[in-house]
Amino acid sequence: MKNKRAPASGGVRTVALAILAALLVVVSGAVQAAAGAAVSFNYKDALSKSIMFLEAQRSGKLPPNNRIKWRGDSGMEDGKLAHVDLTGGYYDAGDNVKYGLPLAFTVTTLAWTALAFKPELQAAGELNNVHAAIRWGTDYFLKCAAKKNHMYVQVGDPNLDHQCWVRPENMNTPRTLYEIDDKTPGTEIAAETAAALAASSLVFRDTDKGYSRRLLNKAKLLYQFGRSHMKTYDGECPFYCSYSGYNDELLWAATWLYMATKRQAYADFISHEAISSSVAEFSWDLKYPGAQVLLADLNMTANGGLQSFKTQADNFVCAVLPDTPFHQVFITPGGMIHLRDGANTQYVTGTAFLFVVYSDILLRSGQQVMCGSQPIPPARLKEFAKQQIDYLLGANPRGRSYVVGFGVNPPTQPHHRGASTPVLKPGTVVNCGMSFGDWFAPDRPNPNELTGAIMGGPDGNDEFVDKRNASSCTEPCTYINSLSIGPLAALAVRGNDLVASQ
């Protein structure tokens, strides 16, 4: 697994690429608009399968209703080195490490999805599955943060893990523990986990009040820990380096805590102390646009009213849409957002998610996006969101799906240990030296279908290699799928135009 994010300034590629993107706008926009108008997919099927991928990423003792039959219990001794129980949680991608920062972002965005798309998920019969996916993460976080001012943030030595191509059920690589405390702080991870727990507390408030309170109380403590010990934790580098710093996570966490508590202390921090910025990316490392969309809905401002979060949310839209004078993000000839190779589709699903959520907010409040003097109606955001999701499902230059087990010519070789390794008997000892030759190198379909996994995706020229060793194309990640569920639910229930039901 490669680093899922490379350094960038505000998520923007080079000026040269931006100019190239501008030249391609007219042609690719027209092609995709025509394609989007003619193409429709079984969004309900895609939605169901996208959730199933998250279930394939579960660590720990699987429940009796486990739907991924080739998966079994794994990581059952996680935490043993410190005499604690750290079983559960998720493997983030194609390896067997549990990374705290992307895992927390996955849960935060799942919780936001459950809140923003509750009617659609109910209508599609998937709300309970999303709740179960959230709880699988929050149960794990409660274990990780059992002690005040201390949190376990990673399980597994990534370097040694990457030297053995073995399914998690049979791994024998060290389950090294990584932690943050008052001597080794980690504001990003503490704040992101606080956001995940606060958002999740809202999800369970009506169905499990006691559990909701536990989540919220832990969120408050983690947020305070992150604020009182402000420092970046680099222990997850080089695999997950926080290039954006921790100010976005603090704003993000304070926003979710304000939504969950309505306490003035969080509002004061947001309005007077928090640092915000206009950027062109929403991802596990950069949360500003997500917080800005939420705060725009709350009509909140920063720095005593001098800074409008709606303006910043608008700036995100203006930087992404190819038909605005402030367009910055590179769009491939086929119409896909492309910020960088390696899990690029997280920006595709992340943008689609925010665009649908923000367009719903704008419709409710009777507002539009303003790109300078150019108004952008909410319908344009939904149209672009649908285009991005449809690209992944098959409306692309290759006419193929980038979702395993869905659509036309779906990928067959995800860069994923569990899917690419045959089911072995419990206790089978794997020769790590031979494992790559046995299961990674062969050019053949994976023996186990990783249903619903969205691939890292094509490159900036819409080129895609369906090979296990082409990890930038074929490695899936939990946070790619978590961000796809909301738009897919909206498309499944509202219809192709994504117009919210009244």
Q: Judging by the overall fold, what is the CATH architecture?
A: Alpha/alpha barrel
Tally of individual helices: 19
Number of strands: 7
- Structural category is mainly alpha
Number of domains: 1
H and E string: HHEHHHEHEHHHHHEEHHEEHHHHHH
- Residue fraction in strands: under 5%
| Mean pLDDT level | 91
| Cα distance spanning the termini | 44 Å
Unreliable stretches (pLDDT < 50, length at least 5) are: 5-37
Protein name: Endoglucanase
Domain Glycoside hydrolase family: 43-486
Catalytic activity: Endohydrolysis of (1->4)-beta-D-glucosidic linkages in cellulose, lichenin and cereal beta-D-glucans
Keywords: Carbohydrate metabolism, Cellulose degradation, Glycosidase, Hydrolase, Polysaccharide degradation, Signal
Describe this structure in words.
Strand 4 and strand 5 (307-308) form a beta hairpin. The chain has a single domain (15-371, 378-494), classed as Glycosyltransferase. The protein is globular and about 65 Å long. The protein is 47% helix and 5% strand. The model is unreliable at 5-37 (pLDDT under 50). The protein has a three-stranded antiparallel beta sheet with strand order 1-2-3. A two-stranded antiparallel ribbon has the order 4-5. It has helices spanning 15-38, 43-56, 100-116, 118-123, 127-144, 158-161, 187-203, 209-228, 247-261, 264-273, 288-297, 309-320, 345-365, 378-393, 417-420, 432-440, 471-474, 478-482, 485-494; strands spanning 98-99, 150-155, 177-181, 301-302, 307-308, 369-371, 374-376. The chain has 502 residues and is mostly helical.
How is this fold's topology laid out?
Layout: H1 15-38, H2 43-56, E1 98-99, H3 100-116, H4 118-123, H5 127-144, E2 150-155, H6 158-161, E3 177-181, H7 187-203, H8 209-228, H9 247-261, H10 264-273, H11 288-297, E4 301-302, E5 307-308, H12 309-320, H13 345-365, E6 369-371, E7 374-376, H14 378-393, H15 417-420, H16 432-440, H17 471-474, H18 478-482, H19 485-494
